[in-house]
Amino acid sequence: MVTTKTQTQDNPIPSVLIVGNYCHDVLLQGGAVVAETLGGAASFISNVLTGLSVSFHLTSKVGLDFNYPLNHNPIVVQTSKTTVFHAYFDLASSENAHQDRVLKRVEACDPIYPSDLPDRRFDFGMAVGVGGEILPETLEKMVDICDVVFVDIQALIRAFDKNGTVNLVGLKESGFYHLLPRLKFLKASSEEALFMDVEEVRKWCCVVVTHGKDGCQVYWKDGETQIAPFRANQVDPTGAGDTFLGGLVAGLAHGFVVPDAALLGNFFGSLAVAHIGLPKFDLRLLQRVKDEMQRRKLHCSCCLERRDDGLIFTKTSGHDEFHASLASTKLVSTCSIQECQQDLPRSPRTVDQVILPQYNGQPKLLVSSVFDEPM
Ligand SMILES: Nc1ncnc2c1ncn2[C@@H]1O[C@H](COP(=O)(O)OP(=O)(O)OP(=O)(O)O)[C@@H](O)[C@H]1O
Ligand SMILES: O[C@H]1[C@H](O)[C@@H](O)[C@H](O)[C@@H](O)[C@H]1O
């Protein structure tokens, strides 16, 4: 268990603070809009935490034009519009060849100020901005009020040109570098990792680099480990990194060692890419995942010596079996959903006709996640 200062016997799941704006995502291809969805790392992460019964407080801002009803009400700013991103899936150029899509921020909601954060302590804090809304002073307040802080590097290194196109700046030049020693986890995609010196940063905090269909790599001060992926039928990469981070943090909140939590991250990341926009998890699948998590916890509880901060970075026995059991939850869920689907009338899905490019350059038809490929 990641034991933190505020954790008690009655409240074994850590309290989590999520900070980052919701946004509207518009996916475009060939000049046409192919989907409009709720976006923002905060929405993808809260989706996973809710699914895995981890409660959280969310600080997020939107405008009056915000389109989606939510349980965790964001702060509505009367004078600002909701952040909007346009994702162009066919605008790759030699300048941004490392990216899978060109992103433009076409509206930006207000920043999140330190005074917007609640006046109480949290075990975990997640800085997960998408449109530059997290300021250095906001992150500073987060490290003051949260015992363990997780940061998605996209919250720190995005810069926007006059057309709103997202560019990345070096972490050293971001204005956040001085706070690294006070963070516990920094997550970056392989594209974003090019904008930092992993060897230097890992001396201060754990760095998790995600590699799309190849899973992720965890680097800490004196070691590193690779975490195996899960197979998926990718239709839209949006939110994979966010959903991964949700799985990682939910795993740590449930008391898992870092490699097992990262495995949960990979698992949820693989579910996310099989959906357009925010994935709606099948309840039976979630129950099976929770059952497997419970089994894994029982297996681990007797054999661990924790560091002072409660974190264990090395793989423990049974890690590979945990991977196999999580993979099998997909298999069962896929079968049962497909059986159910046969009983339902098929409504037309316009997005079925759309093709988005994949990481490997192979276009695939967009389909719903119920057609996930089992391991
Ligand atoms: N095609 C895929 N198949 C299986 N798992 C995937 C795939 N793509 C992503 N994932 C999972 O999701 C995680 C995050 O994906 P990725 O590295 O693409 O993040 P990202 O680039 O930050 O995503 P995004 O910016 O689109 O939210 C990966 O580490 C992996 O576990
Ligand atoms: O909704 C998405 C998502 O949160 C991504 O992580 C982010 O990169 C995009 O900017 C955003 O539009």
From TrEMBL:
<dbReference type="InterPro" id="IPR002173">
    <property type="entry name" value="Carboh/pur_kinase_PfkB_CS"/>
</dbReference>
<comment type="similarity">
    <text>Belongs to the carbohydrate kinase PfkB family.</text>
</comment>
<dbReference type="GO" id="GO:0019140">
    <property type="term" value="F:inositol 3-kinase activity"/>
</dbReference>
<dbReference type="InterPro" id="IPR050306">
    <property type="entry name" value="PfkB_Carbo_kinase"/>
</dbReference>
<feature type="domain" description="Carbohydrate kinase PfkB">
    <location>
        <begin position="201"/>
        <end position="277"/>
    </location>
</feature>
<keyword id="KW-0808">Transferase</keyword>
<keyword id="KW-0418">Kinase</keyword>
<dbReference type="GO" id="GO:0005524">
    <property type="term" value="F:ATP binding"/>
</dbReference>
<dbReference type="GO" id="GO:0010264">
    <property type="term" value="P:myo-inositol hexakisphosphate biosynthetic process"/>
</dbReference>
<keyword id="KW-0067">ATP-binding</keyword>
<protein>
    <recommendedName>
        <fullName>Inositol 3-kinase</fullName>
        <ecNumber>2.7.1.64</ecNumber>
    </recommendedName>
</protein>
<dbReference type="InterPro" id="IPR011611">
    <property type="entry name" value="PfkB_dom"/>
</dbReference>
<keyword id="KW-0547">Nucleotide-binding</keyword>
<dbReference type="Pfam" id="PF00294">
    <property type="entry name" value="PfkB"/>
</dbReference>
<dbReference type="InterPro" id="IPR029056">
    <property type="entry name" value="Ribokinase-like"/>
</dbReference>
